[in-house]
Amino acid sequence: MKLNKYIDHTLLKADATQDKIETLCKEAKEYDFASVCVNTYWVPFCAKQLEGSDVKVCTVVGFPLGAMSSNAKAFETKDAIEHGASEIDMVLNIGEMKAGHYDVVRDDVKAVVEAAKGHCVKVILETCLLTKEEIVKACELCIEAGATFVKTSTGFSTRGATVEDVKLMKETVKDKCLVKAAGGVRCRADLDNMIEAGADRIGTSAGVALMQDKTNTSDY
């Protein structure tokens, strides 16, 4: 697969304006990225901007904390898909994962998967807040719930993706699920290392810099 198709070109900051989102979409079309990843408010605008291209609209649900009700996550998912999203990046219920309430965690993911009606669902584990054992268990729960991807990070917590986390997730899911690395991928070496570790998709705001083999210092 070409490098550009690994990238979810991302802008999730609270101060994102329409002009910035429009630029994101233009860059995504120019470089033919896999998707743009935006907050749900911007889904209809992005869908219109990307009409006629094969760049998908990806959006986040229960973001960035994951501590929303399953019904709210499911509603947000349905609404986003109705308005043009084709990929959903939901945040795991991290507190319930830490508490060992695995049925709750699995059912939360399943509610979004069902609401997505066959569309791609990526589950953000926020690996920086989990132990290795919890990462493994979370991956297993996501597989059971029917998720398409497990994803490392929101990019809004204490750190983003690490090669070690991606390797562990890939070893756990094997061919039952895909892996997305997000947060902190700022240069071509980072990108190459994540792909070598097993990442099938990369979430980054540095997509253009990566394609130009430059370093970007943005947070996500």
From TrEMBL:
InterPro entries: Aldolase_TIM, DeoC, DeoC/FbaB/LacD_aldolase, DeoC_typeI. It is an enzyme of class 4 (lyase). It is found in: Cytoplasm. One of its GO terms (biological process) is carbohydrate catabolic process. It catalyses: 2-deoxy-D-ribose 5-phosphate = D-glyceraldehyde 3-phosphate + acetaldehyde. SUPFAM superfamilies: Aldolase. Pfam families: DeoC. Keywords: Cytoplasm, Lyase, Schiff base. GO terms for cellular component: cytoplasm. The active site is at D89 (proton donor/acceptor), K151 (schiff-base intermediate with acetaldehyde), K180 (proton donor/acceptor). CDD domains: DeoC (cd00959). Its EC number is 4.1.2.4. Pathway: Carbohydrate degradation; 2-deoxy-D-ribose 1-phosphate degradation; D-glyceraldehyde 3-phosphate and acetaldehyde from 2-deoxy-alpha-D-ribose 1-phosphate: step 2/2. Its main location: cytoplasm. One of its GO terms (molecular function) is deoxyribose-phosphate aldolase activity. PANTHER family: DEOXYRIBOSE-PHOSPHATE ALDOLASE (PTHR10889:SF1). Belongs to the DeoC/FbaB aldolase family. DeoC type 1 subfamily. Catalyzes a reversible aldol reaction between acetaldehyde and D-glyceraldehyde 3-phosphate to generate 2-deoxy-D-ribose 5-phosphate. This is Deoxyribose-phosphate aldolase. It comes from Amedibacterium intestinale. The gene is deoC1.
